[in-house]
Amino acid sequence: MKPWIKRSLMAFTGISIAIGGLAACGTRGHHERAPMSAEKIAEVRGKVVNRITSKLDLNAEQQQKLNVLADKVQAQRTALIGQTTNPRGEMQALIAGEKFDRARALNLLDEKTRVVQVSSPEVINALADFYDSLSPTQQAEVRERTGKRRGWFSRG
Hints:
- By secondary structure, the chain is an all-alpha fold.
- It is 73% helix and 0% strand.
- The protein has helices spanning 3-23, 38-56, 60-81, 87-94, 102-133, 136-147.
- The protein is elongated, with a radius of gyration of 18 Å.
- Residues 21-32 have low confidence and may be disordered.
């Protein structure tokens, strides 16, 4: 694979993680494990979109594509979590008995893998649409920020 393709894929992944990770962050703090409310998720998502919009000086069309991307990432996260109210409990159930519950673990893996396989093309298409709508200067800024350790959320 050519180096520029690898860098582009890493940039796409970085943006996707930046939007999805913060907008869909499932906990409030290091020790607190209660999931965020829908209102809090929407608030954080809005802050992330606004920050990226201001850093890249996006026009209305680009911002709309960024919002579509954020929606797709959030939908993927919601589908990945599934119907469970206690993901940690699901993992603890695997080791609750004398033997590791391999069948249940494989079932969880299959479920999560199916979600990723089904929803990832939509996320990739939304990310590509957003990235392709950027000017060369904006694309260079994305590449630069995704190469930094703190990326989009560092000061400055």
